[in-house]
């Protein structure tokens, strides 16, 4: 990497401490020291994936991507079975021996394939969302080109002045080759705007768009599944049932729809 690229380093913002590590064991020691001190708001960058970093950050918790996979698999299974059922009921063929038009063992092949397909697609979407891809609002301190070359980065956010000084000393003791305190680059900030709050009103902050993303996705997938199941029943009752009767099929809530040669419609 060129020297020019190394010189184009982003300025560390106030309340943030940025550190650079040349060795993985020192980085692991630094993360462990921060967590033992009760500091959790940190960002770790690495030029290559390492399971030691994942174990320290996530503490053995499973990846939330599995919920995306579950929702996609449920949606795909319901959609695959519904597609087969509606197709067979809408374009019914003469089935010998009075076999049902909606056959679960036969339709399980398409249901399985659809489950796998949509489970994979939802997994891909979940992985991209949780990985913040595309990363249009990535933190400036993580854009140091060295972090994708040969060093590790550890950025600590939301620190007070005294706490930032302690973090600098802590990271230096754990072997960081470079530590930068954002308060050293601080410039006087403009006065904060005065909010015009009516009497008796409450000042509120805008909601974080990423809050409870998994819960919202799970609820949306559940609603889609319920609508699909209910929609299949309503569609059958309103359209397919009449078509079957007109074609000479016998249908009731207690009987299977079968070929007219074996159970004529009376």
Query: Element order, helices and strands?
Result: HEHEHHHEHEHEE
The unreliable regions are: 1-7, 202-209, 253-266
**What percentage of amino acids are in beta strands?**
5-15%
Indicate the radius of gyration in whole angstroms.
30 Å
The helix tally amounts to 7
Mean pLDDT: 77
The total domain count is 2
Structural class: alpha+beta
Largest sheet: 4 strands, antiparallel
User: Looking at the structure, what is the overall shape?
Assistant: rod-shaped
How are the strands ordered across the major sheet? 2-3-1-4
Instruction: Report, as a whole number of angstroms, the end-to-end distance.
Output: 84 Å
Tally of strands: 6
Percent in helix: 40-55%
